[in-house]
Each structure stands twice: as structure tokens, then as C-alpha cells.
Structure to design on (964 residues):
């Protein structure tokens, strides 16, 4: 079967959830091979996880370049393996860096690039990706018409399913090329202990209606009772109430969780662009005219400072 | 020495309009007013700030797009850019990001630059890969997705706030930079700026001027194919309750329980 | 058929670019504070900061004095777009023009250089002090006196209804220099807030434009250098009237903006608000109201823009057009904002929605810079 190259994103020695989703999706269109770059001593455990989720082969490359230079070393590695192994497709997670890597790999391979797929299926002429565009108001199905398809897939596009495979580790010596920016320093983001926004199955977001930074307390409490990530609208972020890293919307993160709870968010187009593909949407807003209510499966017209704590309490009691 | 800064901008359909697709599955540009992509305003702003910090600098704004794209150029010029380059050719219609990046790279080479500044993504395509592709094509370092950027002593430095970590980056000029919407609020064109923009030069280029074969671009030169585009079925409004009786949270809990979320 | 290049009866491309720029600025930086500014009756500092940062606070100042050099129509568009989101804030560019225009029209080169540069730089605002407790429509009946004392003039008196009093650094003050000559015995001066003897009354408690301070200004033996006189002695009243020919158009602009803001809000509301199972916009009675509002507003806009062009050219019929634009646009603003409140029903009557504020703000445009009754007298005396 066709070999599908999957770039396996990892952090702190662990495989990140979107990579497991990629491996799961890859099985629909061929046989997944994992690519593990710059994992150092964690390479073996990362490879083992990849095997558990279906990687027949795991290509491992290491070197200081991966952490000291931006993007290009990973492009070098992925391109080299894709060429040597004559793979049928390359899959990368749709993150800022993932898309940059994928684009440059595609260009080097002379291949078409599809980004931000939310669904992937096998087609007669290669994999067909579903993308959601224009603030999720359109669904577009596209395929690559030239070269080896390079596709980036959004987190939460599939539920990871284990499917143990051989996971034969093959070490790769990468010939580094190119003109890359130097990474002078790297500071890991302080963990909040909550799930990653784009990866979480449940997201609870606060907006202008939260009123102040302190107001996010009730949002966080609800999120914690649900095991959810916390998001914020652009209005709340611009007001300085919550970090930009948590912004949901066109210029922030695009999330697609099983459940999205919008508290005090009116639902401007910029916000909807970031959450409209959520499976179930729930909103709490004082304003009955708020456009967010047009999208919801369930809406409560009321003060979020009354509704959220009561909900949190109910969840705690169950 | 004049620091030559080129800013790549895109003319996009207004995101607040009712955007859609034309019969050939390209973005319908007739139905909705266009404008300078909001995310590119941040690029223009950072280019202007860098130029204001430099002893001597010149900001050229570059776009690839139809006739109306000159509106985006005019806006950037009225913000303070010095001149503009407009690549406009019928064969470009339908180009994907590979084609567009090829055209832009040639236009940049022809224009000459020490620094290329881009927005983080366009507000219509939202791919966010053009800066990386330009870096690849021009064989220059990419210093991208920056929330802070500065140029000193022939080096471009910036801060990249990624998902997992914040990185401080640097690269020698020439380089390709992209900036996020966290990089600093874009200025509004002033009346003086608007009047001055009328007199600033806009160079019009066609594919022949860039020695690009028209088969390499447009729909025919595209390396991807849109098979279908369908309006997503509008979400239908579900149940709306009010918290008048003070039990909104309980009602919501009952709904979430029924849906097996709790 | 037809030609897209036909350039009559439309604004220039740069005017529309300016509108786009000011609208974006106003919506992002001024609108969010409009309700609070009204509610708290406080000066719209955020608006002043945003306007100064983008050189839109006094666009009429000529380039030779460090200004943007905007024509009268461009100035109208700036005021209109600010007023669309906040009537109080629109008095910043409007009153800066009103206060400084006497200097621009009649002042000496030295006076212009000294007072227009700080205005253009955003370091100082400029107010206009004509009215008095007993001299409103009959402005020539003023009592404020200026008496010559060597190289100085000494001012004594009270001015009332002075917009932006206390926040403005500079004031154009009309004062009687020769009581025998009535209107020809009035002269204009620039007085600075920091001049000794200048003080301010308590802010008036107003129906609308609550964010723009209106106060009395007191002159208690205010001794200023003689070169602060604007133009020649005895020309003050003529300068004051000439100024109003131009600036009544800025009040028309303010009225247009307030009305447009109300119409835009009502347009959005009627599409969302559902009664009897459909948006109220589907009812013909509502449609008729909106059509009338839009029709009147557009007629007022055309008249105002024509008047602005005449202001820029200083046409012979400017006096008529200025008065007509101010009178018509302000009457339209009152009607449109009242209808906007009506369209929102009970919601429109509450402070949770902006249209009642717009209605209150609109009222003043029928009153200041000459009541609409005075405008009709002016028009009648200057019929085209």
C-alpha cells in the first residue's frame, strides 16, 4: 500500500494529540510512516507511540539544527525522506509552523499543497481534503493535481484510534541546506494545566460580557469542571483580560471541539470563523439579539455570572 | 545606504460581506467589496515603523491582483508607503498560492529589496504560507509569525509566539519577515497621507515583464484543484431559554447531560 | 449607457478614502466610549487622543501652519463620521474650526503662526466665545468690554454657552471696543486659558452632547497684548459673522452624522427584531419610515456638501447655503433620530440602546450657531 509520511509533532518527549489524529487519518489513504525530528532521547518513546497508532516505519533524525534553526531543517528532513521513499502523500499538523514546513516541502517536491483540511478521504485521483473557508460558511473539497500531495490537517479533525503496527525505526542522516533564521532563545509557554486550546474536546470561551480580567474566574472554573480549555474572544483579548494565546477567531486559534461554550460573546464574524465548525455550540449571553444565538444548539439568555457558577455547581454535584 | 523594504499585500473580499464562489470555483470578487487585507495592514505598519527607525529607508508595497487591487495599494500608500508595484495580468486569475508566490518572488527580485514584510495570512485564503514560500523561492531566511520585529546593524530580530514556546529569532538581511496582529496597531490614513498617495508612483507589471510563462500560473498552472464548493448548511438555532427564573445554569446542565457531555 | 467618469455630484475618491479612514477610526476608538461619555457627562479624552494621533482633530488648518490642509468638504466628512458614533466627540474637530477660523480669516501672519501651529499639532484646542447671558441671537448686544491700555487691551465680561470651555487652551473672544458703534464697535481677540483673570463657570447640565463641556467664561481684568487682536479694531463682528457662514456647515455635518448613526442602527435593528413571526423590517409601515429617513438624510447631505464646496470657493451665495444646510440638516437630524427611537420602540427609549442619546444630541444642532429661526432670517435676507 502507498506510504503516507506523517510529521509527528512532539513536546516534552510526548507525542502531541494532533499527530495521533494524523496517523489515524493516514490509514484511510495508505500506510502511515512517522517522521520524528529532533526528539533527542525521547525518540524511542515517541516512535513507540507512533507505532501504536499505526506507523509501519518510523524515520528518526536528530541534530542541534532542529532546535537552533527555524523551520528549514525540518523541511530538509521531510523533503529528503519523501524523495528517497517515493511516498504517496505527506501529512502535517495545521499549526503556524506546520503549515510553513508543509508549504516549503511542497514547493521543493514540486507538489500541490492543501492546508487546514478538516476531513480526508481516499479518492480515485489521490486524497481528497475537505476545507472549511470564509469563516466556515463554505465547505470546499480539493485535491492535489501535481506531485505528491502535501496536506496539513487541523487538530480535532479525527478521533485518534490505536492500531498497533511494526514501527520499524530507521535512522536518517539529514543533509541540511538552506538559509534559515537562528533561534536565539526558546522559552516554553507556562503550562496552565488545562488542555491545549486547539486540541481540547471541550472549549469554554469568554468575551466582552465577562467585563474584566477577574471575570474570567467563572469561565475558568466552568472549564475546569468540564476538563476543558479556556478561550477568549478578540474583544476580551484586546481589552487585556486574557492572553492572546487563548484567542479564538480568525486571527487567533481556530477550534473545532465536540462542545463549545460561548459566555458573554456576541458572535461577530471574526469569532465565528474560529469556532463555527464545533460539533455542539452553547451560548450564555445577556443580549437576546446577540448573533451567537443563531448558531447555538442551546442558548441561555441571562447573566453569565449567574448561569456559569450554577452550571459549574450542577456539574460538581453529578 | 537606503534600507529597501518591500511589503507584500493582498486585496481581499470584505470579510463582513457575504463572500462566496464564482462559477469557476474561484473567489467571487464581484459580489463583495474588496479592501486591503486587515492582516496586511500590520505588515505595512511594521514596515513603516522600521523605515522610521532607519537612517534612510524606502517602503515599496507590492501586490498581485486584478484592477481593483490598486485600492489596496492606495490604502498602503496613504498610510505612508513610498511607492507601489502592481502585478496585474489576466492570466493570473485563479492562481493558487504556489503561482502567486512565484509571481511575487519575481516581482520582488525586479523591484529590489533588503527586507520583505508580509502579514501573517490573508483574511480570505487564511493559509499563512506565502511568507515561507517566498523565503524558499528567494533562498532567504524566513523570520515569520513575529509579534515584535526590529532591524539593527543588518540583522532582523523578532519574537515568535508559538503554540508551545516563545522564540527569539534573528537573521541577516536580506530576509523575509511576517508579522502577526499582535505586532502593533496599524495607523489610519490621515488626510495628508491620502492626498500624498495620489502622487506616489505605482508601477504596473504584467507577466511578460517578469518573464513568467502564463501556463505556470492561473487556474491552469494551479497545482491544486477545487472539486466542489458548497455553502455549509446554516446552523439552525436550537433551544433558547431565559434565566428569568434563575435556573438557566440548571437547564443548561440538563442539556449537557442529555448530550452526554457531563 | 452612461459614463463612470462623469464627475459632477459626487465626492472625490480621496474624500471617500478619508471617510473610510475616519469611519474605521471612529468605530474602533470613539464608538466604544460614546455611551459612557454621555452617561458620565465626561470629556471624550479617548476621542481626542485618537483624533490627534491620526491628525484628524483640526484638519482644516492650512499646511503652511503645520496642518493637514483639508478642504471644507473633507472637514465636513471628518465631523460627520465622528458624529455618526458620538455627537460629543464631533465637537472636537468642529469647534477647533469654529474657534480658529476668525484667526485664519482675519488674523495677522504672526497671530496665525503663533496659534495655529499648536492647534495643528494637537497641543491646544480652540473655542469660540460670542454669546452672552443677554446676547444670544442678538449677538451684537453683547456687553463684554475691551479697553485699550497702552500696548494692552483689558477685557471684562461674561461669555455663556462656550463649547469645550475649560479644555480649550485658546479662545476667540468678541468684545466691545467702542460702545457707540454697536456691531462696528466690536473687536475679536485671542485669549489664552492661562491669561490672568480668565476663569470658568460650572459645566452646564444639558439634554445632550453631555461629553462636550459647555461653560461660562469669565474675564476679570484680563490684560492681553494688543497684537492678540484678530484683524483691525471694529471688525470683530464682521469676522464673527463671516466665520459662521463657513462653520454652520460643520454643524450641518454634525447633524448628518448623528442622523446617519441613528438610521444605521435602526436599519440593523429592524432586521433582527421579530414580531408576529417575522422581522419588523418586513412590515410596510416600517419600510416607509426608513425610506423617509433615508430620503431626508440624503437631501440634507447633498445640500451640506454643496454648501461645503461653496465655503471652499467662498462663493457669493455662501451665506444662504450655509444657513440652509445648517437649518435643513439639523431639522432632518431631529426627525430622523425621533423616528429611530420610534422604530426601536420601548428599547429605543432606554439607555441600553444608542438612539435616545442620538435624539438628545440632535436637538442642539437646531439651536447652536444660530437657532433655526435665525437661520431662516439669514436665508430670507440672502435669498438666491
Amino acid at each position: 500500500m502507498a506510504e503516507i509520511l506523517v510529521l509527528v509533532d512532539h513536546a516534552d518527549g510526548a507525542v502531541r494529540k494532533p499527530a495521533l489524529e494524523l496517523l489515524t487519518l493516514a490509514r484511510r489513504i495508505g500506510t502511515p510512516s512517522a517522521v520524528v525530528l529532533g526528539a533527542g532521547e525521547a525518540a524511542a518513546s515517541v516512535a513507540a507511540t507512533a507505532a501504536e497508532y499505526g506507523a509501519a516505519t518510523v524515520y528518526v533524525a536528530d541534530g542541534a539544527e532542529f532546535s537552533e534553526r527555524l523551520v528549514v531543517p525540518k523541511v530538509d528532513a521531510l523533503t529528503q525522506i519523501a524523495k528517497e521513499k517515493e511516498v504517496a502523500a505527506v501529512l502535517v499538523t495545521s499549526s503556524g509552523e506546520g503549515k510553513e514546513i508543509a508549504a516549503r516541502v511542497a514547493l521543493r517536491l514540486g507538489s500541490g499543497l492543501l492546508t487546514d483540511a478538516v476531513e480526508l478521504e481516499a479518492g480515485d485521483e489521490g486524497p481528497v481534503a475537505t476545507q472549511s473557508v470564509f469563516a466556515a460558511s463554505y465547505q470546499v473539497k480539493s485535491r492535489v493535481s501535481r506531485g505528491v500531495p502535501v496536506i496539513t490537517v487541523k487538530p480535532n479533525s479525527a478521533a485518534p484510534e490505536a492500531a498497533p503496527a511494526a514501527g520499524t525505526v530507521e535512522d536518517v542522516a539529514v543533509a541540511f541546506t538552506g538559509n534559515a533564521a537562528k533561534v536565539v532563545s526558546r522559552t516554553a509557554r507556562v503550562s496552565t494545566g488545562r488542555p491545549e486550546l486547539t486540541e481540547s474536546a471541550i472549549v469554554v470561551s469568554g468575551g466582552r460580557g465577562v467585563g474584566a480580567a477577574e471575570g474570567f474566574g467563572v469561565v475558568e472554573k466552568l472549564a475546569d469542571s468540564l476538563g476543558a480549555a479556556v478561550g477568549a474572544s478578540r474583544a476580551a483579548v484586546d481589552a487585556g483580560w486574557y492572553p492572546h494565546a487563548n484567542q479564538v477567531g480568525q486571527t487567533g486559534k481556530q477550534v473545532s471541539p465536540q462542545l463549545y461554550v460561548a459566555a458573554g460573546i456576541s458572535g461577530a464574524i471574526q469569532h465565528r470563523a474560529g469556532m463555527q465548525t464545533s460539533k455542539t455550540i452553547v451560548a450564555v449571553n445577556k443580549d437576546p439579539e446577540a448573533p451567537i444565538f443563531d448558531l447555538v444548539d442551546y442558548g441561555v439568555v441571562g447573566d453569565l455570572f449567574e448561569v456559569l457558577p450554577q452550571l459549574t455547581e450542577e456539574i460538581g454535584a453529578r | 545606504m537606503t534600507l529597501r523594504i518591500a511589503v507584500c499585500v493582498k486585496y481581499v473580499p470584505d470579510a463582513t460581506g457575504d463572500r462566496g464562489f464564482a462559477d469557476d470555483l474561484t473567489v467571487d470578487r464581484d459580489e463583495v467589496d474588496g479592501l486591503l487585507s486587515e492582516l496586511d495592514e500590520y505588515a505595512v505598519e511594521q514596515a513603516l515603523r522600521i523605515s522610521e527607525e532607519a537612517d534612510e529607508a524606502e517602503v515599496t508595497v507590492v501586490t498581485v491582483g486584478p484592477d481593483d487591487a490598486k485600492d489596496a495599494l492606495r490604502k498602503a500608500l496613504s498610510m505612508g508607503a513610498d511607492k507601489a508595484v502592481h502585478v496585474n495580468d489576466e492570466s493570473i486569475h485563479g492562481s493558487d498560492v504556489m503561482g502567486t508566490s512565484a509571481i511575487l518572488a519575481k516581482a520582488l527580485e525586479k523591484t529590489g529589496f533588503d527586507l520583505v514584510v508580509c502579514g501573517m495570512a490573508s483574511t480570505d485564503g487564511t493559509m499563512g504560507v506565502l511568507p515561507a514560500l517566498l523565503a524558499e523561492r528567494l533562498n532567504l531566511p524566513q523570520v515569520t509569525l513575529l509579534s515584535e520585529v526590529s532591524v539593527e546593524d543588518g540583522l532582523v530580530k523578532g519574537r515568535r509566539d508559538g503554540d508551545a514556546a516563545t522564540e527569539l529569532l534573528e537573521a541577516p538581511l536580506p530576509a523575509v519577515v511576517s508579522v502577526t496582529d499582535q505586532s502593533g496597531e496599524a495607523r489610519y490614513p490621515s488626510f495628508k497621507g491620502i492626498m500624498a498617495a495620489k502622487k506616489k508612483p505605482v508601477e504596473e507589471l504584467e507577466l511578460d515583464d517578469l518573464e513568467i510563462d502564463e501556463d505556470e500560473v492561473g487556474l491552469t498552472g494551479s497545482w491544486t484543484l477545487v472539486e466542489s464548493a458548497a455553502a455549509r448548511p446554516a446552523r439552525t438555532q436550537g433551544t433558547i431559554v431565559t434565566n428569568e427564573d434563575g435556573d438557566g445554569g440548571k437547564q443548561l446542565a440538563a442539556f449537557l447531560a442529555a448530550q452526554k457531555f457531563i | 449607457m452612461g459614463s463612470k467618469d462623469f464627475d459632477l455630484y459626487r465626492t472625490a475618491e480621496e474624500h471617500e478614502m478619508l471617510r473610510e479612514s475616519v469611519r474605521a477610526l471612529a468605530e474602533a476608538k470613539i464608538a466604544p466610549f460614546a455611551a459612557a461619555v454621555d452617561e458620565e457627562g465626561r470629556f471624550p479624552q479617548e476621542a481626542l487622543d485618537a483624533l490627534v494621533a491620526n491628525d484628524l482633530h483640526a484638519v482644516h488648518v492650512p499646511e503652511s501652519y503645520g496642518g493637514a490642509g483639508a478642504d471644507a468638504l473633507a472637514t465636513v466628512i471628518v465631523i460627520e463620521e465622528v458624529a455618526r458614533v458620538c455627537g460629543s466627540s464631533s465637537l472636537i474637530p468642529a469647534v477647533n474650526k469654529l474657534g480658529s477660523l476668525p484667526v485664519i480669516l482675519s488674523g495677522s501672519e504672526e497671530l496665525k503662526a503663533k496659534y495655529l501651529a499648536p492647534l495643528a499639532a494637537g497641543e491646544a484646542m480652540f473655542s469660540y466665545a460670542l454669546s452672552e447671558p443677554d446676547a444670544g441671537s442678538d449677538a451684537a448686544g453683547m456687553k463684554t468690554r475691551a479697553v485699550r491700555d497702552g500696548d494692552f487691551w483689558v477685557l471684562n465680561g461674561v461669555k455663556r454657552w462656550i463649547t469645550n470651555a475649560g479644555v480649550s487652551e485658546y479662545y476667540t473672544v468678541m468684545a466691545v471696543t467702542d460702545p457707540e458703534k454697536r456691531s462696528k464697535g466690536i473687536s475679536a481677540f485671542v485669549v489664552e486659558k492661562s491669561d490672568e483673570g480668565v476663569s470658568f463657570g460650572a459645566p452646564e447640565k444639558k439634554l445632550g452632547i453631555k461629553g462636550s463641556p459647555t461653560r461660562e467664561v469669565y474675564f476679570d481684568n484680563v490684560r492681553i497684548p494688543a497684537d492678540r487682536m484678530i484683524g483691525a479694531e471694529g471688525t470683530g463682528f464682521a469676522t464673527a459673522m463671516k466665520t459662521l457662514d463657513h462653520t454652520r456647515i460643520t454643524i450641518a455635518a454634525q447633524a448628518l452624522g448623528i442622523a446617519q448613526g441613528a438610521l444605521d442602527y435602526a436599519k440593523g435593528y429592524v432586521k433582527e427584531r421579530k414580531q408576529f413571526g417575522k422581522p419588523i423590517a418586513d412590515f410596510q409601515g416600517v419600510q416607509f419610515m426608513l425610506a423617509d429617513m433615508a430620503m431626508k438624510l440624503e437631501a440634507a447631505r447633498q445640500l451640506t456638501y454643496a454648501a461645503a464646496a461653496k465655503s471652499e470657493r467662498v462663493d457669493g451665495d455662501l451665506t444662504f447655503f450655509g444657513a440652509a444646510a445648517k437649518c435643513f440638516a439639523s431639522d432632518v437630524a431631529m426627525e430622523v433620530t425621533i423616528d429611530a427611537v420610534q422604530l426601536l420602540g420601548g428599547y429605543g427609549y432606554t439607555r441600553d440602546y444608542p438612539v435616545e442619546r442620538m435624539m438628545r444630541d440632535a436637538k442642539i444642532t437646531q439651536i447652536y450657531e444660530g437657532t433655526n429661526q435665525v437661520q431662516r432670517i439669514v436665508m430670507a435676507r440672502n435669498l438666491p
Summary: The interface with chain B takes residues 14, 17-18, 21-22, 24-25, 54-56, 59, 63, 68-70, 74, 78 of chain C (CB under 8 Å). The longest helix of chain C spans residues 236-272. The mean pLDDT of chain C is 96.
